[in-house]
Specification:
This protein is an alpha+beta fold. The protein has a single domain, classed as Ribosomal protein L22/L17 (Ribosomal Protein L22, Chain A). Helices cover about 30% and strands about 35% of the residues. A three-stranded antiparallel β-sheet has the order 1-3-2, covered by helices on one side. Strand 2 and strand 3 form a beta hairpin. It is flat, with a radius of gyration of 18 Å. It starts with 13 loop residues before the first strand and ends in a 5-residue tail after the last strand. Keywords: Ribonucleoprotein, Ribosomal protein, RNA-binding, rRNA-binding. It comes from Labrys okinawensis. One of its GO terms (molecular function) is structural constituent of ribosome. Belongs to the universal ribosomal protein uL22 family. One of its GO terms (cellular component) is cytosolic large ribosomal subunit.
């Protein structure tokens, strides 16, 4: 039983990976995502390995997952992959408060983000 299999949303030469609920603001995550957009995957992995941003390790794991999906699930060649898209979305925001002077409260927001990485196989230039 169960529902019928849905059509594949991406073209045959693309694969993606999604990381949800990353504990970082979307603005900070987008700085790291923009670092890898349009690059070859080996260059992007090297950039993320030596990045000093805390969230770069999670972005690297997501990129490695997208590469593994491309290789194992879709039979794409790893050497010809580029990062075609890396986009960030907002998840929820946990609201907390911090006690301030004279009985007041200061609001603290702890944002979460989603990250989607799409890799595409491009033909090697002869």
């Amino acid at each position: 039983m169960g529902k019928p299999k849905s059509e594949r949303a991406l073209p045959d030469n693309e694969a993606k990976a999604v990381a949800r609920m990353l504990r970082v603001s979307p603005q900070k995550l987008n700085l790291v995502a923009s670092l890898i957009r349009g690059k070859k995957v080996d260059s992007a992995l090297a950039d993320l390995t030596f990045s000093r941003k805390r969230i770069a390790t999670d972005v690297k794991k997501t990129l490695q997952s997208a590469i593994a999906n491309a290789e194992n699930n879709h039979g794409l060649d790893v050497d010809d992959l580029i990062v075609s898209e890396a986009y960030v979305g907002k998840a929820f925001v946990i609201k907390r408060f911090h006690a301030r002077a004279r009985g007041r409260a200061g609001r603290i927001e702890k944002p979460f983000s989603n990250l989607t990485v799409v890799v595409r196989q491009v033909e090697a230039k002869a």
